[in-house]
Design brief:
Oligomer: single chain
Order of helices and strands: EHHEEEEHEHEEHEHEHEHEEEHEEE
Distance between the termini: 20 Å
Largest sheet: 6 strands, mixed
Strand content: 25-35%
């Protein structure tokens, strides 16, 4: 529940109507976009070069970002922005190509599965065509290949294979010699994403052991089990990478922990960030956005990003999951609770992430 108190001078109103953005160069974006979409300044434009079918519900989009894009490391994510019915939508996806592809020909790939009811994924599958331009953010994420060679275990499910593909291709190109095992869980054999690439990696790279497991091709669902891990030689020495649905991630974490693999040797990247259970009765309060001179009264566990948007503000954001830090801004007073950890902040000045910060009493934010 929100109530808003707003005081806006005529000069503030005029400035917002004229510019409505922090980057002055981006003021000319509407004109530049008409001349050449790759000249836009507010974000890095990326042209769709081609689109490849992977499975019945998964496509790979080959993109060519503008030259000013900074590149990425294998396993990282990017935020994309797409205009759908006049509204700019932002989503986070893993890059499925190796960084070498970007260096060699200036292209990257996003391998995206159509989600039931998914606004952006469905729109991309149905409407995005070669020659179109989308916005691309800078790469981020700590799901990275180890700097020192050591035995690796990957456990992936469904479209969770995408950052793993980037890493496997990178390791193979470097002739990584330590043992690497991939346990890849799919619903059926027809749902294997990048099947040809995976089989070629297995054939040409002696260090790789590939085990693709279909979960729904028998009367009883086939999930990850201890026997799968028994077949991984020297599993106690492996550094483990997990990516997939929450159920698979939780099961894999439990089984690996039982085998003595410590938390610092398990690396995960999520489709959706896990959230702590919060006492909603203790949350909420008046939020003052000091730069905009707007005050909002909130109740419950709504994060500051939702509160700001309900107050007609347009803060910068990316993943909306507490991963990319694009929505970070300064809290000058008050306490917030982190939705991911359940921990409370200090009462004074500090940088916070709007998307995962819930007010706990009166809060003032520089926005």
């Amino acid at each position: 529940m929100l109530s808003i108190t707003e005081r806006t001078s005529a000069l503030q109103w005029l400035g917002k109507q004229l510019f409505n953005r922090e980057d002055p160069a981006a003021f000319f974006d509407p004109l530049l976009e008409r001349i050449n979409p790759m000249w836009v300044q507010q974000y890095t434009p990326a042209r769709v070069e081609r689109i490849e079918d992977e499975t019945a519900d998964t496509k790979t989009f080959v993109l060519k970002p503008a030259k000013r894009w900074d590149g990425f490391k294998a396993g990282q994510h990017v935020n994309i922005c797409i205009d759908i019915d006049g509204i700019r939508r932002n989503r986070t996806f893993s890059l499925s190509s190796a960084p070498a592809q970007w260096h060699n020909n200036g292209t990257v790939t996003l391998t995206i599965k159509r989600l039931p009811g998914g606004l952006v994924t469905n729109w991309m599958h149905d409407n995005l065509k070669p020659g179109a331009t989308i916005g691309l953010g800078e790469a981020f994420g700590e799901f990275l290949i180890p700097e020192v060679g050591e035995p690796l275990l990957y456990i992936a499910g469904g479209s969770g294979i995408t950052p793993v593909l980037s890493q496997l291709e990178t390791l193979a190109a470097a002739n990584y010699e330590a043992p690497v095992t991939l346990l890849y869980f799919v619903r059926t054999q027809a749902d294997i994403i990048a099947a040809q690439k995976l089989y070629e990696l297995r054939q040409n790279w002696d260090a790789l052991t590939l085990n693709i497991i279909a979960t729904n091709e028998s009367e009883t669902p086939r999930f990850l089990k201890e026997g799968d891990l028994d077949e991984v030689t020297g599993i106690e020495t492996r550094r483990c990478y997990l990516c997939g649905p929450k159920g698979l991630m939780d099961l894999a974490t439990d089984l690996l922990t039982q085998r003595g693999i410590t938390e610092d040797r398990m690396h995960s990247t999520f489709f959706a960030a896990p959230q702590a259970a919060l006492d909603t009765d203790a949350l909420g309060g008046e939020v003052r956005f000091s730069n905009s001179d707007i005050s909002v009264s909130s109740e419950g566990d709504a994060p500051l990003l939702d509160i700001a948007e309900a107050a007609k503000l347009s803060p910068r954001y990316g993943c909306r999951m507490g991963i990319c830090h694009q929505c970070s801004c300064k809290k000058t007073s008050g306490t917030v609770v982190n939705r991911l950890t359940g921990k409370s902040s200090g009462p004074g000045e500090e940088n916070i992430q709007l998307c995962v910060s819930v007010p706990q009493g009166p809060v003032t934010v520089e926005l």
